[in-house]
């Protein structure tokens, strides 16, 4: 056990987060996301039984967001005509606002298939049991200047 480390972050996940460098990206994927097929070139870590918000909160306690890009956080856009509401995005923005002074301005949207293309280039994909639709979120790692 370590002090100050959120218990939801497994040793495996902590190791991978530590290995990531500036501008590397990770996906926290909902339960419908094809993590294994998208992650053929990425490290896939399973966090079954957990939702995206709780994983996001734990990661942002340790993980700096990239300050050199406009949107170090990106969400998968809802497909036109898809009658899906995304209240979980407000939850994400509230969590991000606690850890990044840009708040919701740090968050952008990426068209669904462009999101998939970028996910194939991600360093890490975290597979969760999140049931909300369009709940996938991409984070780009920044630097620690201290």
From TrEMBL:
Pfam families: RbsD_FucU
Record has RNA-binding as a keyword: no
GO molecular function, one term: D-ribose pyranase activity
Keyword terms: Isomerase
Catalytic activity: alpha-L-fucose = beta-L-fucose; beta-D-ribopyranose = beta-D-ribofuranose
UniProt entry tagged with the keyword Transmembrane: no
Gene Ontology BP, a term: fucose metabolic process
Family matches, as PANTHER family: FUCOSE MUTAROTASE
Protein name: Fucose isomerase
